[in-house]
Amino acid sequence: MATPADPARAPGPTDPADPVRAPRPSGAADPARAAGPSGPGGPVYPVGLRLLDRRVIVVGGGQVAHRRVAGLVEARAHVTVVSPEVTPALEALVAPGSLTWLRRRYQPGDLDGAWYAVAATDDADVNAAVAAEAESARIFCARADDRASSSVWTPATGRHGDLVVGVHGGGDPQRAIAVRDAVVSGLTDGTIADRTSRDVMTGRAGGVVLVGGGPGDPALITVRGRQAVAQADVVVADHLAPLSLLASLPDEVEVIDASKLPRGRSMAQEQINELLVDRALAGKRVVRLKGGDPFVFGRGMEEVEACVAAGVPVEVVPGVTSAIAVPALAGIPVTHRGMTHEFVVVSGHLPPGHPQSLVDWSAIARLRGTVVVLMGVDTAPAIAAALVEHGRAPSTPVAIVSDGSTPTQRTVRTTLAELPATLATAEIRPPAVWVVGPVVSLSPDLSTPS
C-alpha cells in the first residue's frame, strides 16, 4: 500500500536487488520460512525500531493493546488505534495528542503509510486480516493472539537509564520476562556493572545526583535512585539513608559519611556543599544520598544552589518521604475519607517559643486533620503542650513510630496528654515520626504480627 516514493518500502517486491524477494534457484528452501530453533518462522533477528514520528497502527483497544501502546508512545511513534472501544487509559491519551483514535472496526487500507502494526483484537479473523494486509504491504506486524503468524515478536523490554534490555524467550514469554527482570534488577542494584555509562542528562562525567533514599529500607528507594547509586564514583551519605546499598559498591567508589546526628556529631552543611562541588568538578559522578525526600527538611535546595552556582550539572531524584511512608508502614493513613481533608508535616527540631522557630503552633492546633511531626522526639512534650494549649483535645490519639521501615520498627499509641510520659516509659529514641489525629485509631499496627 506504500507508494514507490516511500524509501522505507523500496526496492519493490519484484526488484532483483531486494535481499528478501530476489529469485531463488529452483528447489531451494526459503530461509525466511525455514524452521528454526525459535519456531516455524526461523530464528529471531533482534533489532531496535526507531519509531520517532513514524506511523504505527494498533488494531484493538483492550488491555493487550493498552500494553503495546504504552511502549509505542514511549518511543514517540505516531500511534493510531483502530477500535470501536478502548480502555479508559487509552482514551486518556487522545486529548493530549499522544495517540489518534479511529472509533470504528478495522477496514482494509488502515495500514496505509504505516511502518509497524499490531493486531490485538479478540477476533481471530480480524487479526488475521490485519496480518495479511501487513504481509502484502511488507509491514512488520505483531499479532497478539498467534505468535506463529506474526512477522515480528515483541521482546520483554526493560530500561535502565538510556540502556534498553530486550529479551526473547525462545517462544516462552514468561521465560523472557524472568530474564528481563533479573537483568534490569542487576543493573539497578549494581550487581551487573554498567560502569562505563554516563548520565544522559549531563552528557559528561562530572555531575551531582541528589537522591532521596526513602524511609530507610533499601527496597523503598526509587528505581532511578538505585541506578544513580550503582553508577556513582562518589557517594556522600547521611546516616538515615539506606546504607546497606553501599555494601554492593565496588571498592574504588569513595563513600563519605555526611551524617547529622540529632544534637550530636554532624558534618557542616557548607562542608557538604564543598565536597559535592569539588568531586564533581574533578569529573566524578557524585551521589548525595539522603534519607526520605531531599526537599522535605533535607536541606536539598541548599546543595542544589551550591552546585548551580559552581556550574555543576545537578539532578534531583525525589524520595518517599518518611512523613507519609512511616505512618503508612504502621497502618496509619495520613488522610481518610470523611475523617480528614488535610494533613500537615511539621519539623519539631525547635520547640514552640524558640526564637528561631517558624511554626505557628496555634494555627497547627486549630486544624482538624492530621499533624505529622518529624525530628520531634526531644521536643515532643513542649509541642504536645502547645497543641493542647491552643485548642487540640488532650484525648487526641497519637502514634509514635520509631525506626520506620527497618526490622526494629515499633509503634506506640497514646494521647496528646499522655505523650510525654509514654515517650519516657517506652524509651523512644530518634529516628521517630509521630502522628496526631483521629486517623491514628483507624488501623492496627501492621509492624506487629497478629
Automatic annotation (TrEMBL):
SUPFAM superfamilies for the chain: NAD(P)-binding Rossmann-fold domains, Tetrapyrrole methylase
Any one GO molecular-function label of the UniProt entry: uroporphyrin-III C-methyltransferase activity
Listed EC numbers: 2.1.1.107
InterPro entries membership: 4pyrrol_Mease, 4pyrrol_Methylase_sf, 4pyrrole_Mease_sub1, 4pyrrole_Mease_sub2, CobA/CysG_C, NAD(P)-bd_dom_sf, Siro_Cobalamin_biosynth, Sirohaem_synth
One example of a Gene Ontology biological process annotation: methylation
UniProt keyword terms in alphabetical order: Cobalamin biosynthesis, Lyase, Methyltransferase, Multifunctional enzyme, NAD, Oxidoreductase, Porphyrin biosynthesis, S-adenosyl-L-methionine, Transferase
Gene3D superfamilies for the chain: Cobalt-precorrin-4 Transmethylase, Domain 1 (3.40.1010.10), Methyltransferase, Cobalt-precorrin-4 Transmethylase, Domain 2 (3.30.950.10), NAD(P)-binding Rossmann-like Domain (3.40.50.720)
Composition bias type Low complexity, residue spans: 23-37
Chain positions covered by the region annotation Disordered: 1-41
Keyword Repeat: no
Catalytic activity entry: precorrin-2 + NAD(+) = sirohydrochlorin + NADH + 2 H(+)
Pathway assignment: Porphyrin-containing compound metabolism; siroheme biosynthesis; sirohydrochlorin from precorrin-2: step 1/1
Tetrapyrrole methylase domain residues: 208-419
Name of the molecule in the record: Uroporphyrinogen-III C-methyltransferase
